[in-house]
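Hi support team,

I submitted a single chain yesterday and got back a structure, but I'm not sure I'm reading the token output correctly. Could someone confirm the output below corresponds to the sequence I sent? I've pasted both exactly as they appear in my results page.

Thanks,
R.
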Amino acid sequence: MEPSGGDDLGFSFQTTKGGVVTISRGGRAVTILRGASAQRFLAKTHDASIAALQQLMARVTGNYKRGNERPATDA
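Hi R., thanks for writing in. Yes, this is the structure output for that exact sequence:
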């Protein structure tokens, strides 16, 4: 299943045998999750759509819009 245009934010993740989760964006590691935080993240990924996964990874890394941004206006 390929993400549609607006759904792909460029995030991906990999899990090691030891349970460490590495979240990457554009091929560069952004965040590494270990222990309980990695387990919580993986639990949320099981039934998530691609768009939901992208949003989840954006939130975990802290790289997401908070909804309070305003577009620039010509003054």
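A quick pointer for reading it: The two ends are 44 Å apart (CA to CA). Let us know if anything else looks off.

Best,
Support desk
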